[in-house]
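User: Need the bound-state model for magnesium ion:
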Amino acid sequence: MEKKAFQAESQRLLDLMINSIYTHKEIFLRELISNASDAVDKLAYKALTDDQVGLNRSDFKITLTPDQIKRTLTISDNGIGMTKEELEQNLGTIAKSGSLQFKQDMAAKDEGKGKSDVDIIGQFGVGFYSAFMVADEVTVTSRAYGSEEAWRWTSDGKDGYTMEPCEKDTVGTDIVLHIKANTEDDHYDEYLEQYRLSDLVKKYSDYIHYPIVMLMHKSRQKPRPEDAGEDYKPEWEDYDEWQTLNSMVPLWQRPKSEVKEEEYNQFYKEKYGDWEDPLRVVHVSAEGAVEYKAMLYIPAHAPFDFYSRDYQKGLQLYSSGVLIMDQCADLLPDHFRFVKGVVDSQDFSLNISREMLQHTRQLKVIAGNLEKKIKAELLKLQKDEREKYEQFWKAFGMQIKYGILADYGAHKELLKDLLLFWSSKEGKMVTLAEYQSRMAEDQKFIYFAAGESVEKIAQLPQTERIRDKGYEILYLTDEPDEFVMNLLGELDGKAFKSVSDSDALPESEEEKAQAEKKAEENKDVLDFVKETLGDKIKEARISKILKTGAVCMTADGPVTLEMEKYFRRVDP
Ligand code: ADP
Ligand code: MG
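Assistant: Bound-state model below.
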């Protein structure tokens, strides 16, 4: 038998969980059932296209078997199973996904407020390792689909694990937890009790769409014999009966009015490995040309890899509760790639290929509808819960701006209402519509000024005259902002205008003449400046855009100074 040590980081998480005074130890069951369900999903998906699997959809299940004498609880599934390598990889280390992210975020929170690790653990999926919160030994016996051999992984959760070959007749995984003995403070016996387990399944795993079954020990009254006399006393008998513990109705199939916010959030956190509740849930039940249900989430913060190549957008696609595609990218436009969730439509056949799927009309219709729904929901948030919307904007505003710039502005009409910029007048973030509603009668342009920060922009001499007029200026501090303004061009006939443009404030004939005269008079100074700076500037001229400021730099042509800086950075 081989004995191997856990990876250092796994060890740390283990210690943390086991030794925490964590009160919600019960979530271990939810975690193991969720893994079993994922494994079954994978094999069920294979079975759609591969006759070799030999199982029908109705054959898949997850079985719970408590044994009070041996003090064991077994969670079995007939899913895809794990090979020897997979057992070591998946259970010997804290793999990618939720767990690692969790660790990082936890470290970040630790530094911050010294918030206890303990709360955070309970808030989202911590995975397989949670088994060690209630077990002093865990044995995983697994046979992978397509493999003849089975392997057994055993660990006490303290110093590593052992691997040995073993026998297993069917494909799938059995996880045997040896439940800890009660201590004065902690009670573990309950995890061997049928009714407690049944309650836990109802509480956390009700929507799992494979049956979670348990052989329940029950008693009933014996039928009254026909010849029973007056003095017959009812007799009782014990019997065992398989019972399905979950209702198997996925959350998104239930009517909106019957789903509690708590349930939506729980589902989200567990499924997508987030520790924070989503900002918003959109639950759609569409009827008509294409019938579907969708449950979409707008996360409260960007995943750590969101602005990298690693991040992949997509929604899970189900057909009547059966997963047919894990990450369907075509359901989401790039500008809303932060959205997570599921779509379920019986209009898709179960064994449709990915290539075919992309070309179906239904998929396009659904994607189009979802795009509208997401926008409407964001607008609602913007209107009703501004703080939350600003949080959204902080996380994903950059994505919306890129969305405007993408595809030569094809999505600008859809996305422009979502934009927020800092307002000189309001001292906070405002929408373009809000800006428009405050525009002065005589105001010709929608003004903006670009710079590194709000503070720096506020000090730009070019902004003074415009603010004096009582006009509002949008302060642009992000790199794509000016490109966004350029691309939008105008809004209801009012052009976007940089405060640095020489025609930022329209002038009368009289003003024009005056300016020309001034230039004549000061020709010597201007020549001197130009001579001194040489090629560094194109020309020195009397500015029309300054008030108390002495000088300012402006760009020549449509490319502003900030944009020039940007181009120089990206392409020096
Ligand atoms: P996560 O579910 O977030 O990936 P877990 O710690 O819960 O993290 O599980 C780690 C991995 O172990 C899973 O991704 C899966 O590959 C594997 N695994 C766990 N339980 C099972 C199971 N019952 N059948 C097959 N694979 C499993
Ligand atoms: Mg898991």
